[in-house]
């Protein structure tokens, strides 16, 4: 009891150190006597002390790592022993005799270490066929069933036999056996080592399981080394690999039913054997995959294999033919399905990442085979079937990887749009991720400047981008959405619209119709963002149609006509107006009106204006907005020259009417003097000086009223800005040669302003002063110019 | 804390299977035979065997006559060329003695050398060739199973050194010399100088006898399945049942069922010497060889090879009922030791013979 308590004081690491030190000291001690016996050529003592030294390896106390240190220490001593045995042989002692002599040792572990050591000398002497000695050694080693001790013993066997295998080209071939014997030997040693290694897991306490697993992975290379030896054998050609080596190794891998071992060994096989072997035995190798334990991380294994093979192609493209010959892809895809079926507990992420690997493989090896890619996606969809949206974040990540891979590869969305299963995979993404993915898609289009020029492609694309364009089930409430994010996304969609290009107007129109079809489903919030670019694209179409000089009326129903486009535009703006986005739609109406005007379509332009006015009346209520809207209307109207007198009068009348009805006097004033332009449109427009002057006078009146209102309410009259502005308008029209605007009128106004400015009641504003000053300066400048305008100005006097 | 339950120590029966013979595996805590596990439970087998010392009792046969008047020497005629056997004496010393075979002639000469200035008066000189069995528990009693006499001299006086040649031709020496624990069988030449007044002068000369056997015509393998119900089932096979003294035991152990944690497995060569008869039979067992054949715990389906060289061990042939006095038999004992140091074993007799 006391001893136990005392032991407990040590941490296990300290204990390990101590035990190792003790064992090392003893090895040292026995090795000393062994050396003395070696020097004295006393074989009996040599055997005695070497056996004692090796007895230290019988310990069960050491962790694998410490045991390894001890093993290495004795290993060095055994090298010297080997030299001694070789010299004994030269001195005339038969190797067979020494071989028997060492077997008199009573303990099995020292006995077998000695036997291996002698065995190596025995083979080297060629007194016996290598194959027989090897077979005996590997067979006798069965006696050590303790996992760690057995592993190290067999590792020693493997080490000393490595250069003595009867491989092709080796001096031990022929009488010593054939490469078949060599393979057989290594395979057997491998099998036994793996069994021991696997068994480690099942020994000892359950609570130490993790620790044991860690210890085991420290030992894995001992097992894996055998595979390496196999791969190094000259005589193992493709045929032997296919017929013997691989089936036997796989048999062991599958049968050991151990997660750690299966994963490691599969990885080993993939790493150590050459690429072309893998390619030619793909079916066998993949056939083993579904048979592995359900918990084995098989996806990593398979993706490594795929990666290796794709690198192989990359390095030497001429092997591609072989890939086709062995149908690498179909084997892989078949196997992926099988593996997933075989592992019902495989998390979704595993299944998806398998597909990602497969896809990567296809992209690297068969970049030209879109059908393969689609097949992979299809298989993945099949797996996801019935699972709805994928919730697992890791799986989602993999799905995104799956979807991004072709994009990155081809840098062309059009290619992706050819993949019928692409959208189906996307459907399984949850809302957020789907959105992210769509953003990725769009950005890919934008950054690669991919033009999308076919209506069906557009349809497919928008189908993909559904989550962005429409409301969908999983989306959070609109209030929860970050406004900025939303805008950014929608702006992306808007930018995307500009990538829809087709030179053929008919196709282009189809594209637009398709786009609209998708956009109108997006709800009012999106329409504000999505429709304007579409409208402008349509307007662009109008321009190009105009340039082509098509007949106004479409001949057949299929062909596109200006009228149709305008109808289309009308519908869109109308839709936008319903959102409601009055100001925006108003502007768009005006845009359309102008375009229609340019095309000479009077009724259409009129209709657009009408709509604009209606909107103004019904929807624009904010006074500032009204001012802006009115200015826009007036501006557009001024430029639109298509109207006949009647229509024109109606519209201008309406415009001036609204101007006078604005709420604030200054606004009224400004709107009214702007209206003056409506009656003075050069180059074929109306020129009506009378009404211009009317407008200006009215503006002046309003300005006066404003001034008075201001002095009535505040005691001082407001700034003289309005007057100066009106003065400028007068000057404009004066220069234009409006006969109604005379120099005397200007003179009068100027004086009025100057007087008012000097009156004390007026508040002084530096800006207005400057404005006035520069206006006056302008007049003076014009006077001095000395041409016809100067003559005009001559009559105006300034101080 | 309580101790792990120890299974009841009764003999455990086993399931028979196939052609293998029935047998039972015994647990070490219950055995009619002997001390070996008690003492060796934790003892490590030595790495290389050393000759086991025979336990013996101090016994002085050579009754030293007080001041004999002469020296008596017995020489074999072919002493130079004859093979010798190394024999361990009671005190552990190894001596070399001449070695004869069963039908050999024993010839030589007796040399009587009076001490200077003395003469030997005698009533006759004779030489006897005796084959004796000596049982130690039956103190001092000899059973002569062979006794041959040659008269060397008629009564008279010996004044100076005198030699007498003798020969026992093709002597029937059917038993081998043997030094055991409770018994020994020896061959000896005894020279007696009979004297009338003084005690007789007696001189002995030991020699060793081996008998070769032919290769046995039938030498079946030993194959058996043994086990403990639901705990351990093994099948073992030794390639032969009869071995010569320098033979190799080859075999394998096949594990059919393993539900205990085995630590290691060894193969023992045991010798059982039985002396006496009826109720006065004494059995003495020794373990001559302890040979580890497995380290660690095997699992079901594992097969462990056996290869044990017999040459390093001091073995004799199997002796059956020698002159109704004793027998020496050999056994292979397969011992499995579990992690709680419980021993499971199965003992199997093998026949040893001496091959020429």
Automatic annotation (TrEMBL), chain A:
The keyword Membrane applies. Transmembrane segments: none annotated. It is a peripheral membrane protein. Its main location: membrane. It is found in: Membrane. Keywords: Membrane, Protein transport, Transport. Plays a role in vesicular protein sorting. Belongs to the VPS35 family. PANTHER family: VACUOLAR PROTEIN SORTING-ASSOCIATED PROTEIN 35 (PTHR11099:SF0), VACUOLAR SORTING PROTEIN 35 (PTHR11099). This is Vacuolar protein sorting-associated protein 35.
From TrEMBL, chain B:
Residues 1-10 have a biased composition (Pro residues). Residues 21-31 have a biased composition (Basic and acidic residues). Residues 1-54 are annotated as: Disordered. It comes from the Eukaryota. Signal peptide: none annotated. Gene3D superfamilies: 2.60.40.640. This is Vacuolar protein sorting-associated protein 26. It comes from Sphagnum jensenii.
């Amino acid at each position: 009891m006391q001893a136990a308590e005392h032991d407990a004081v040590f941490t296990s690491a300290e204990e390990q150190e101590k035990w190792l030190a003790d064992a090392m000291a003893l090895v040292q001690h026995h090795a000393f006597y062994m050396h003395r016996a070696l020097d004295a050529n006393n074989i009996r003592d040599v055997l005695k002390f070497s056996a004692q030294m090796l007895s230290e390896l019988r310990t069960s106390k050491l962790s694998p790592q410490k045991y390894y240190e001890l093993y290495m220490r004795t290993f060095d001593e055994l090298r010297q022993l080997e030299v001694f045995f070789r010299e004994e042989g030269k001195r005339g002692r038969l190797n067979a005799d020494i071989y028997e002599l060492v077997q008199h040792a009573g303990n099995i572990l020292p006995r077998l270490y000695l036997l291996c050591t002698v065995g190596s000398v025995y083979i080297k002497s060629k007194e016996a066929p290598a194959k027989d000695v090897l077979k005996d050694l590997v067979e006798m080693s069965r006696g050590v069933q303790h996992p760690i001790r057995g592993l190290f013993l067999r590792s020693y066997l493997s080490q000393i036999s490595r250069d003595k295998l009867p491989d092709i080209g080796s001096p031990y071939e022929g009488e010593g056996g054939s490469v078949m014997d060599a393979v057989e030997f290594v395979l057997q040693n491998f099998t036994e080592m793996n069994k021991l290694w696997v068994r480690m897991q099942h020994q000892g306490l359950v609570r130490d399981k993790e620790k044991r697993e860690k210890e085991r992975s420290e030992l894995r290379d001992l097992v894996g080394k055998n595979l390496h030896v196999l791969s190094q054998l000259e005589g193992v050609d493709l045929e032997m690999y296919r017929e013997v080596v691989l089936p036997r190794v796989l048999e062991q891998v599958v049968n050991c039913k151990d997660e750690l071992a299966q994963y490691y060994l599969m990885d080993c096989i993939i790493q150590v054997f050459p690429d072309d072997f893998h390619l030619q035995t793909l079916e066998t190798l993949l056939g083993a995959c579904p048979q592995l334990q359900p918990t084995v991380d098989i996806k990593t294994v398979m993706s490594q294999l795929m990666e290796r093979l794709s690198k192989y192609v990359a390095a030497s493209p001429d092997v591609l033919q072989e890939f086709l010959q062995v149908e690498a892809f179909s084997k892989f895809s078949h196997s992926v399905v099988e593996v997933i079926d075989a592992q019902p507990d495989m998390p979704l992420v595993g299944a998806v990442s398998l597909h990602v690997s497969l896809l990567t493989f296809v992209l690297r090896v068969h970049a030209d085979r879109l059908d393969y890619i689609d097949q992979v996606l299809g298989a993945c969809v099949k797996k996801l079937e019935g699972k709805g949206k994928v919730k697992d974040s890791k799986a989602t990540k993999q799905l995104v990887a799956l979807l991004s891979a072709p994009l990155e590869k081809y840098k062309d969305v059009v290619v992706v749009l050819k993949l019928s299963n692409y959208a189906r995979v996307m459907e399984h993404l949850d809302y957020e991720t789907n959105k992210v993915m769509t953003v990725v898609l769009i950005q890919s289009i934008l950054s690669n400047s991919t033009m999308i020029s076919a209506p069906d492609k557009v349809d497919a694309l928008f189908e993909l981008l559904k989550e962005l364009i429409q409301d969908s089930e999983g989306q959070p409430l609109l209030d929860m959405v970050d406004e900025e994010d939303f805008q950014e996304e929608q702006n992306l969609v808007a930018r995307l619209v500009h990538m829809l290009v087709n030179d053929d107007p008919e196709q282009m129109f189809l594209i637009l119709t398709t786009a609209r079809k998708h956009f109108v489903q997006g709800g009012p919030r999106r329409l504000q963002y999505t429709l304007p670019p579409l409208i402008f694209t349509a307007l662009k179409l109008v321009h190009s149609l105009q340039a082509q000089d098509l007949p106004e009326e479409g001949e057949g129903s299929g062909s596109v006509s200006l009228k149709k486009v305008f109808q289309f535009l009308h519908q869109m703006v109308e839709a936008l107006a319903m959102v409601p986005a009055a100001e925006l739609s108003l502007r768009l109406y005006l845009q359309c009106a102008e375009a229609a005007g340019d095309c000479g379509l009077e009724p259409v332009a009129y209709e657009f204006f009408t709509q604009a006015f209606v909107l103004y009346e019904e929807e624009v209520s904010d006074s500032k907005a009204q001012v802006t809207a009115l200015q826009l209307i007036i501006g557009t109207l001024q430029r639109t020259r298509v109207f006949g007198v009647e229509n024109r009068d109606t519209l201008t009348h309406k415009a001036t009417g609204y101007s006078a009805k604005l709420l604030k006097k200054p606004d009224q004033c400004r709107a009214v003097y702007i209206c003056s332009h409506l009656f003075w449109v050069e180059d074929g427009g109306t020129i009506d000086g009378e009404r211009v002057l009317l407008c200006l006078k009215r503006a002046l009146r309003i300005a006066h009223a404003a001034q008075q209102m201001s002095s009535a309410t505040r005691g001082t009259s407001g700034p003289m800005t309005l007057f100066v502005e009106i003065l400028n308008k007068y000057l404009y029209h004066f220069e234009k040669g409006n006969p109604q605007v005379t120099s005397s009128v200007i003179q009068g106004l100027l004086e009025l302003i100057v007087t008012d400015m000097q009156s004390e009641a007026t508040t002084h504003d530096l800006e207005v002063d400057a404005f006035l000053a520069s206006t006056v300066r302008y007049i003076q400048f014009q006077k001095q110019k000395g041409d016809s305008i100067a003559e005009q100005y001559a009559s105006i006097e300034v101080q | 804390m309580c101790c792990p339950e120890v299974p009841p120590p009764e003999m455990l029966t086993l399931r028979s299977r196939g052609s293998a013979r029935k047998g039972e595996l015994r647990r070490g805590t219950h055995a009619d035979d002997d001390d070996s596990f008690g003492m060796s439970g934790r003892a490590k087998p030595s790495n290389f065997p050393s000759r086991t010392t025979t336990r013996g009792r101090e016994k002085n046969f050579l009754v030293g006559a007080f001041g004999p008047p002469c020296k008596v020497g017995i020489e074999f005629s072919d002493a130079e060329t004859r093979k010798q056997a190394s024999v361990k004496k009671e005190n552990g010393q190894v001596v070399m003695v001449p070695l004869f075979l069963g039908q050999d002639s024993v010839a030589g000469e007796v040399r009587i050398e009076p001490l200077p200035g003395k003469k030997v008066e005698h009533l006759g000189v004779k030489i006897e060739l005796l084959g004796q069995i000596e049982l130690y528990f039956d103190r001092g009693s000899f059973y002569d199973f062979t006794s041959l006499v040659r008269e060397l001299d008629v009564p008279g006086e010996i004044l100076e050194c005198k030699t007498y040649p003798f020969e026992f031709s093709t002597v029937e020496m059917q038993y081998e010399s043997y030094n055991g624990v409770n018994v020994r069988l020896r061959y000896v030449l005894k020279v007696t100088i009979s004297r009338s007044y003084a005690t007789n002068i007696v001189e002995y000369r030991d020699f060793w006898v081996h008998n070769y056997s032919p290769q046995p015509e039938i030498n079946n393998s030993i194959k058996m399945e043994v086990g403990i119900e639901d705990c351990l089932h093994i099948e073992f096979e030794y390639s032969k049942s009869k071995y010569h003294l320098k033979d190799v035991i080859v075999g394998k152990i096949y594990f059919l069922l393993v539900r205990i944690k085995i630590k290691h497995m060894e193969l023992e060569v045991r010798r059982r010497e039985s002396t006496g008869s009826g109720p006065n039979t004494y059995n003495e067992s020794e373990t001559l060889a302890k040979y580890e054949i497995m380290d660690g715990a095997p699992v079901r389906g594992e097969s462990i090879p056996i290869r044990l060289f017999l040459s390093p061990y001091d073995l004799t042939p199997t002796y059956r009922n020698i002159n109704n006095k004793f027998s020496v038999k050999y056994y292979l004992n397969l011992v499995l030791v579990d992690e709680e140091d419980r021993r499971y074993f199965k003992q199997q007799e093998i026949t040893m013979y001496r091959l020429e």
